[in-house]
Amino acid sequence: MIVYPAIDLRRGRVVRLVHGDPARETVHGDDPVAVAARWQAAGAAWLHVINLDGALGEATLALDTLRAIAALGVPVQFGGGLRSLDDAARALDAGAARVILGTLAVRDPDQAGEAVGRFGADAVAVALDARGDRVATHGWQQVSAWIPVDLGRRFAQMGVRHALYTDVSRDGDLSGAAVEATAALARETGLAVIASGGVASLDDIRALRAAGNIAGVVTGQALYRGVFTLEEALAAARV
After folding, report:
1. Section 208-214 average pLDDT
2. Are 39 and 8 in contact (CB under 8 A)?
3. Which one of the listed residues 8, 53, 167, 171 is annotated catalytic?
């Protein structure tokens, strides 16, 4: 199971939000490349980089920052503000190894299939982020009519392989990972699902690994608050 350290970008800084609320922001650094290098030095095999400005409709694609982080040599999973497949292509050209399609794919699921055809299945992930029992969009500020499992099945039929699942009600608050919901989503869709949101301890990582069908976990708040180190998280994911 891959551990993805989270690097959330807002106004040039590394931040964490609670439940996706822009008013509940904690700044954890003003140099995203230095933060990325820190996680690289600790052994990260992937980085999870989200452009919150783009996700919240406030700014551009943050391609300069993405380019600088990707130049470190660690594969980057990148999302936030990708409103078209051309935006996704720009992010991949800037060095992202995989792009995360959220609002774009929820509003028009066919876009996910087109992305797989254009970029390859390993270069595309879809965001099945849930607020309540519905998929959230627009930086988690709105909700769609889709239930995550139903939309995930549709994506899988189109050849999508990777998905990110975040329980928005847990994100950033250290309340514990949604292990059962994540495992159920993976089981019922056949997607390689990455868990995100609420990771509070190494026991959460161990429980996600023990589920047996969860492809990865994104962790941010616990790392930045020093609840555990990335080295400890990597070890827990391997045991």
Report:
1. 97
2. no
3. 8
